[in-house]
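Build the 3D complex.
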Amino acid sequence: MVKSAARLRLSPVQPGLCAKCPVRKFAAYSGVPASALKFLQSARSSDRIVPPRRNIFWEEKGADELFTLYDGWAFTFKLLADGRRQILEFLLPGSLIGMHALWFKAMPHSAQTLTSVSLCVFDKEKFRDLLRRKPEYERELLKYMTSSLAVRDRRLSDLGRRPAKERIARLILEIFGRLTARDMVDGHSFTFYPRQQHLADALGLTKVHVSRTLQVLRQEGLLELERDTATILDLKGLRELADYTETEASGW
Amino acid sequence: MVKSAARLRLSPVQPGLCAKCPVRKFAAYSGVPASALKFLQSARSSDRIVPPRRNIFWEEKGADELFTLYDGWAFTFKLLADGRRQILEFLLPGSLIGMHALWFKAMPHSAQTLTSVSLCVFDKEKFRDLLRRKPEYERELLKYMTSSLAVRDRRLSDLGRRPAKERIARLILEIFGRLTARDMVDGHSFTFYPRQQHLADALGLTKVHVSRTLQVLRQEGLLELERDTATILDLKGLRELADYTETEASGW
DNA sequence: CGGATTTTTGAAAACCATCAACGCGGGTGG
DNA sequence: CCACCCGCGTTGATGGTTTTCAAAAATCCG
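Done.
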């Protein structure tokens, strides 16, 4: 099963009509008013398939487009002068990518694919038109951004104040929650594309320490991470360890 | 001079007409269209003065109001179960506080004053009306939120990937930039209300380590922090150490 | 099967936390 | 006005978490 899911990434599902979009109820789309769908469709200038490990856009460069992720996994990140990387967000189907482009000349971060990915591409200007014509949608995006900021603040607390074990547990639980909302889990298992290096870069750790900490979590019977597959062995225990409340698991 | 500035906090400046508001060009207000001022004024249900070290609202509680900070310093933060604190953002005049209340039942963080503070208070429902009536303002807020998210992502990178010295340097430079935009600096000196414990909680460090690191920065002739006053001794050197580019210094 | 990527392991060191104590200074109350 | 108290910053000793460096083992992919 996992294998076939992984194989899927080689030819990602491609989007069709916005009105029938299956990811429409997720993330940035969750509140798109039906009346705006026509405009959303017309602002969508094209679709695009991007292979794994390719950048979608680059930090400090300009961008004329923004995207929604239709299928596949990706992430946003920043690079420091010495090459160290901080992953800011893992992008899942429904994620809106590159809003910054709407108003600013330079992107504040890069975006890169993890799997092969299919994107809905929106021309910057057309998207601005859409916002002007459909303030309800604009309002929905404002809500989406507010919620995104809250998620980012949780991660900030994790990096600032939690030890490695909790950081890892919480990130896995967060992704588990998002995937559950998308019906992309199989019981307590799910396909998981980030490598240990990605976890490290998202959590402010080194891959070595991530490796060691994952072993502890496995030995404690809480969590198992194999290549491309994560299995939560003890959800209750993991939540407890991670101090992860139910309310943290909704809405994006 | 510092003395008198500190004394000012005991009776903060109170707001008058939105149309003549001196902080209107900062942060959340920077793009308020003149046409929206009338509505902004009418959405403003009252003013409020809050003494130092008081919460403005509480994490996990609901809120019926949102605020803009008119005068004084404050910050937002989250508490962990064991009492550890993560400061998310320092709030300066012009900051919009508590947007989350517009759509969500529970606040994702708390807000607390550092000095005595004066707030413009907006009723949640009236503010929603304002957005409905003035989509230009709504659009401006969307831009503001986007930019806030980018700032948060910089801090995330700092916590994840930078050592204590750089974190401190960068936070000071960020605040210096924001204060400069507000004309609240005196050359390379400025009034600075956070204590070392606040820096620690914002940067994911302990107050002890902040103290030691500040001593190093002082000995290196880069930065001096006394009670209520910060002085940048060597701006160029500090920027270099902090890897702080000019573009990081604008727009919020 | 062979090369590349990813994960694991070990040893040593760096960075930062913890704990505890002391000093300084400002504000407050007697 | 002075003494006291409390918040805040400092200092030292010690320990833990995490990093670094290097290398080997495991896994994947073509």
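Helices of chain A lie at 2-8, 37-43, 124-133, 135-161, 164-181, 196-203, 207-219, 235-242.
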